[in-house]
Write a structure and sequence with these properties.
By secondary structure, this protein is of the alpha+beta class. It has a single domain, classed as Electron Transport, Fmn-binding Protein, Chain A (Pnp Oxidase, Chain A). The protein has 6 helices and 8 strands. Strands 6-7-3-2-1-4-5-8 form an 8-stranded antiparallel sheet. Strand 2 and strand 3 form a beta hairpin. The two termini are about 30 Å apart. The relative contact order is 0.21. The N terminus is likely disordered. Bound molecules: 2-acetamido-2-deoxy-beta-D-glucopyranose (2 copies). The site of one 2-acetamido-2-deoxy-beta-D-glucopyranose has 6 residues, from loops. InterPro entries: CREG_beta-barrel, Split_barrel_FMN-bd. This is Creg1 protein.
Length: about 200
């Protein structure tokens, strides 16, 4: 009976074969981050401008992200930003922001707000990855997931950014009915990822 219900849920969600079951929610959160092409970034408007009615208004934008490569999931979100972008201007003024992921973007069959269609918000600070080995690693992760980015670096001075472990403050995660699940940064980073 339970097996049948889980199977039905998997069908409803259009879950891919490597999606952990909903009750292993920390793993689902890690799977969602690793599988996502992009996140919605929410920054605080550094000034009044297009898309910002007033300074301090939340500004939602799209960032292409990665947390590793084809064989590695770190759980740490990396992105690649040019200095002139609106969202970059915001985080240079105040790095506190959040990143939101929806399973709908990677193939949930139900509608995005339906709880079994997983969603995750990571709140923290997005900062530039330090130059040197950390930055080289970040670029290898970004280029492995988004080969287009190699071309971007020729036109603009894009830099890799991350939400470093010490700068993650909390998670808001839903993958089933009953409200947001709680887990710590340590639990999130420790959740084993099965990469198929
Ligand atoms: C992924 O990154 C790790 C750590 O840098 C590396 O050991 C591994 O070879 C990389 N995998 C691929 C497919 O590039
Ligand atoms: C964490 O954020 C602060 C800004 O508040 C920044 O100076 C620091 O470099 C970040 N940590 C890492 C490891 O990037």
């Amino acid at each position: 009976m339970l097996g049948f219900r889980l199977l039905s849920l998997a069908v409803i969600c259009g879950a891919s074969s490597n999606r952990p079951p909903f009750f292993e929610y920390v793993k689902v959160a890690r799977w969602l981050v690793h599988s996502s092409d992009y996140a919605v970034s929410s920054t605080s408007c550094a000034s009044e401008r297009l898309g910002c009615a007033f300074k301090g208004q939340p500004f939602g934008d799209i960032m292409s992200v990665t947390d590793g490569n084809a064989t590695l999931s770190t759980g740490i979100v990396y992105t690649y930003l040019p200095p002139e972008d609106a969202a970059t201007q915001d985080i240079l003024a105040d790095p506190r922001m959040s990143l939101t992921f929806s399973e709908k973007a990677i193939g949930c069959k139900s509608t995005a707000e339906d709880p079994p269609c997983a969603r995750l918000t990571i709140a923290g600070k997005l900062t530039q990855v330090p130059d040197g080995p950390e930055s080289d690693l970040a670029l290898s992760y970004l280029f492995s997931k988004h080969p287009q980015m190699k071309e971007w670096s020729k036109a603009h001075s894009f830099k890799p950014y991350w939400m470093a472990k010490e700068n993650i403050s909390s998670f808001f995660f839903i993958d089933f009915y009953g409200g947001a699940k709680e887990f710590t940064v340590e639990e999130y980073l420790a959740a084993q990822q099965l990469i198929i």
